[in-house]
Design brief:
By secondary structure, the protein is an alpha+beta fold. It has one domain: Nuclear Transport Factor 2, Chain: A (Roll), CATH 3.10.450. It contains three helices and six strands; from the N terminus they run αββαββββα. A six-stranded mixed sheet has the order 2-1-6-5-4-3, sandwiched between helices. 21% of the residues are buried.
Length: 132
């Protein structure tokens, strides 16, 4: 149900904002993690360990990483697309970075099976096949 998936994603962001760690129990074992839209040289990663390593390397660049769910852009039975802001003060620097991304989530049977991040809302919506 879309409502259940929306609650799951909201809890996920709240947990990530509070702890800096993903909610591992919500990841399917072979989750696909796609950041190729924002990092064209990257590959689609698979599995919890790969996801954890990439997320940690990103959040660890900040002294005070933060992420905020701005809005749910679109949702259906298996997909949620969100707009988020993240960033913080870079470690060893006074520079503060703020990013705006669009995340596309695919959820099946209460588990996240695919995640992708995008620079535009249209790309995120297209990534999961939802009409705008």
């Amino acid at each position: 149900m879309p409502g259940d998936n929306l609650d799951l994603i909201r809890r996920y962001y709240a947990h990530l904002a509070e702890t800096g760690e993903p909610m591992w129990e919500l990841h399917a074992p072979e989750i696909a993690f796609d950041v190729t839209d924002v990092m064209p040289d990257a590959e689609v990663l698979r599995g919890r360990e790969a996801v954890g390593a990439v997320l940690r390397s990103y959040t660890d660049t900040f002294e005070d990483f933060r992420i905020e769910l701005e809005e749910v852009v679109a949702a259906d039975v298996d997909h949620v697309v969100t707009a988020v802001r993240d960033g913080g003060r870079m470690k060893g620097s006074d520079a503060v970075i703020e990013n705006r991304f669009f995340h596309a989530w695919t959820i099946r049977e209460g588990k996240i099976v695919r995640f992708s991040t995008h620079l535009s809302q249209a790309e995120a919506v297209e990534a999961v096949g939802l009409a705008q």
